[in-house]
What does this fold into?
Amino acid sequence: MTRNVVISGGGTGIGLAAARVFAADGDRVLLLGRRGDVLERTGVPGALTYAADLADPQAVRGVAGFVGREFGAVDVLIHSAGGNGLLEPLDDDAGDDPLDAVARAWTLNFRLNLLTAALLTEALRERLAEPGGRVLFLSSIAAYRGHGQVAYAAAKAGLHPYAHDLARKLGPHGITVNVVAPGYIEDTAFFGEGIDEDLRAWLVDETLNGRAGTPGDVAATLHWLASPGAAHITSQIVQVNGGAERGH
It folds into this structure.
């Protein structure tokens, strides 16, 4: 059966890999992102695209209207939009005050990673297929760790209680809600123009299988969680990190 799949952050990285997997399965896919030109270049067969800033309520209302016209019901909603802010344009008017820098970093990360997911979910909540709907959030290994870019980590960790609450409320309607938390994934724009080789070596060395993850690893997990075979799995955080973090 053909399903309607909405993927935020669908123009690059994990979101694009997921779009390709679902499209190959015969599903109808809608790719969301801020950069329309990037969405248009994905080459995902039959995919629809819609450019919008998902941290803007008015823009998300536009997405909801488009989904209503083109899809009606949403079978799978995947939240891949986000990042650590490295690719965001610098604020030329920003001062050097350290507290201003803290405010910018935390506000940016919560907008990119948490607010976008909450707004899109609430806008499409009434359109989720009943029964059988799937909501999937992308968290991070960083959500479990107290080092690195903590604003990003905190924003990703904030998805966890939101997903658990949604799972509780949507479960009676036959809708599952889960979180996928990847570790180090190569071939994404997360590290901007590139990653330091020493850092990459350390991240790979943390794994038990001795390799970096790929967008395809995460996409396959998302595809499985959206399948009928995962119908009794909800309110879970599934880690995809080669064993770099485990036991939660």
